TrEMBL record:
It comes from the Bacteria. It comes from Mucilaginibacter aquariorum. This is CehA/McbA family metallohydrolase. Residues 221-232 have a biased composition (Basic and acidic residues). SUPFAM superfamilies: PHP domain-like.
Length: 402
């Protein structure tokens, strides 16, 4: 009830007074006062089968980033194709070109491919930290660059007008994302092959999810350096190409179509998992809400908890090692829920739990085990260690209008 902009004197009728009184009584008698706002109606869950799994890298620097070496756009695209990537986003530092990525990375004659989906984006490189932009089509990046030092409310409005997906980069490292997490859609929870550096990023992600921010977790290699063609072209950083390059890690999205827009939409919706490299197994995470044996939702999806038990299914697909043993860790609301050992060609784990009808719940999984060989980036396996894959959360009672 609002009396703003009401013209003339406000006349309380008897009925209005009763409604007001009842509302106050209802709010006070509600044990979760403050959360009494009714949650918006949730949209129906999208199909679990009409779509395609696409893999890519969401954080790569080309020669348009000043500190990169031996990494022209054509080399990144050719390499991505050689390891069967479906999409890629070249995210050069926007401050190196005064915000004008449109006339640098995107205008590079090598920025084209018939088979690889090329997202438009950049690394928003500011005094308050780094974020990546992902867009299906060109947008006016200069506008975002120009407001980088303004208040977050101003930045949020500009971002919404541009219709772009904004993502926090390496949130716990140097140049962490020093902006409000209310202006982003996703967070880089796995930056580079060096998995051990990401523990605090995962902690931040869990804090954000627990506070009702349904942010997608995604990966990004942050690769800057390619293999030199000849030894004389080598730089002090050339060795990095053997340890961290396109695909370390690899972000999988379940897209409705093979288009750049579908990739960005899947990323926003959280139908995403991350694997250590393009050949490592992919983790899929589903829930059967009515226990009829048919899965009803997958990671990234959100529904209202009914109070009935839900059956969850974790499955590994793709290149599982023939006699590999994998450990599946389930996290519920930021805390350890269970640990399961699996083996076999298509390992599956099922568990049951009853999400509370009041308050929010989320479940996500991580997979550990033997590293899968990535011959093109041979030193990356040692750096990612036993980390194989991680899923996005399955959510209950998250308010879409949060
Ligand atoms: Zn950065
Ligand atoms: Zn970067």
């Amino acid at each position: 009830m609002t009396f703003k902009n009401t013209k003339g004197p406000i006349l309380f009728t008897g009925i209005k007074c009763t409604v007001l009184l009842l509302t106050i009584v209802a709010c006070i008698s509600n044990p979760v006062f403050g959360q009494s706002k009714k949650m918006a109606k949730l949209p129906p869950i999208a199909s679990l089968t009409d779509g395609v799994w696409l893999k890519g890298d969401l954080h790569v620097h080309s020669r348009h980033s000043k500190e990169s070496s031996n990494n022209p756009v054509a080399k990144i695209i050719a390499f991505s194709r050689s390891v069967a990537m479906d999409y890629i986003c070249i995210t050069d530092h926007d401050n190196h070109v005064d915000g004008d990525v449109a006339h640098n990375t995107w205008a590079d004659p090598e920025f084209k491919s018939d088979s690889l989906l090329l997202l438009y984006g950049a690394e928003w490189t500011t005094t308050r930290g780094h974020g990546n932009v992902f867009s299906a089509k060109p947008y006016d990046h200069k506008r975002l660059y120009d407001v980088r030092d303004q208040r977050d409310t101003v930045i949020g409005r500009v971002k919404n007008k541009l219709g772009i997906h904004l993502s926090a980069n390496h949130p716990s490292g140097k140049d962490h994302f020093g902006y409000s997490y209310d202006i982003i859609e996703s967070i880089e929870v796995w930056n580079s092959a060096i998995w051990s550096r990401n523990a605090n990023a995962i902690m931040i992600w869990d804090d954000m999810l627990s506070s009702g921010r349904k942010l997608t977790g995604r990966g990004g290699s942050d690769a800057h350096h390619g293999n030199p063609e000849t030894p004389d072209k080598a730089t002090a950083n050339s060795g990095q190409a053997k340890a961290n390059y396109v695909g370390t890690p690899t972000t999988w999205v379940f897209a409705v179509k093979r288009t750049t827009q579908a990739v960005v939409d899947a990323l926003t919706n959280g139908r995403v998992s991350i694997s250590a490299n393009p050949y490592a197994p992919r983790v899929e995470f589903y829930a059967d809400l009515d226990q009829d044996g048919k899965m009803d939702m997958m990671m990234g999806d959100n529904t209202r908890a009914t109070g009935k038990p839900v059956k969850f299914r974790v499955q590994l697909t793709g290149n599982t090692l023939p006699d590999g043993n994998y450990t599946i860790n389930v996290v519920k609301n930021g805390s350890k829920f269970g640990t399961y050992q699996v083996t076999g060609k298509t390992p599956v784990v099922e568990f049951t739990d009853t999400p509370a009808t009041t308050g929010r719940s989320y479940y996500r999984v991580t997979v550990e085990g033997q590293a899968t060989n990535y011959p093109q980036v041979p030193q990356s396996m040692a750096l990612s260690g036993s980390m194989v894959a991680l899923s996005n959360p399955i959510c209950f009672n998250f308010d879409p209008n949060f």
